[in-house]
Amino acid sequence: MGSNITNLIDSVKNIYGWNDKQLAESLGVSSHSILSWKSGRRSPKRAIEIELEKLGNGGKGEKMLDNQLQDKDYIIKLQKEKIALLEKKLERVASQNTEIDLLLEWMLTNAYQAKAKKMIKH
After folding, report:
1. Is pTM, for the whole model, over 0.85?
2. Which of 34, 36, 38, 45 has a 20 to 30 Å separation from 81 between CA atoms?
3. Which positions ≥6 away from 54 have C-beta within 8 Å?
4. How far apart are CA 2 and CA 56, in angstroms?
5. Which element (helix H / strand E) includes 78?
6. pLDDT at 69
7. Closest CA to 18 of 33, 34, 3, 4
8. Is the dihedral of CA 105, 106, 109, 112 positive or negative?
9. Angle at CA 59, nearest 5°, toward 58 and 60?
10. So what's the pLDDT on residue 30?
11. Residue 61: other Cβ atoms inside 10 A
């Protein structure tokens, strides 16, 4: 991965005639981040990588746009699946709370009835 990013960084710098600092400024990151990516110690976030690829394609990048749309569709799909799982968990919790509420109501009713019976006997 490091060499692909290094090549991409070098390509973008050559296209625009930028140094590391100028590239970093255009991406909204530090020069240190650029050096870390080039050395392979760290990898850029996906959004930064996409921006680098767009810059490397001279801003044309129809392929990149397709990839971004596919990424967005995939992310939306994952988020919908996550929402569905959370809804199921919420339903389970709600049903457990209903059972607890019914149990508490039953206990209070029985306690009240027992107290009422004692009061009637006295």
Report:
1. no
2. 45
3. 61, 64
4. 16
5. helix 62-121
6. 66
7. 34
8. negative
9. 90
10. 94
11. 16
Tens of pLDDT along 82-120?
Answer: 888 888 888 887 777 777 788 888 888 877 777 767 777
Give residue 53's identity as a one-letter amino acid code: E
Give the 3-state secondary structure of residue 38.
Answer: helix
User: What is the residue whose two structure tokens read 């590239």?
Assistant: 23
Confidence category of residue 74, pLDDT binned at 50, 70, 90 = confident
CATH number of 1-60: 1.10.260
Six-digit token string for 94: 């709600």
At 110, the amino acid letter reads N
For residues 25 and 38, give the distance between their C-alpha atoms in angstroms, rounded to a whole number: 16
Please state the φ and ψ torsions of residue 34, each to the nearest 5 degrees: -60, -45
Structure tokens at 32: 């240190």
Would you say 63 and 25 are in contact if contact means Cβ atoms under 8 Å apart? no
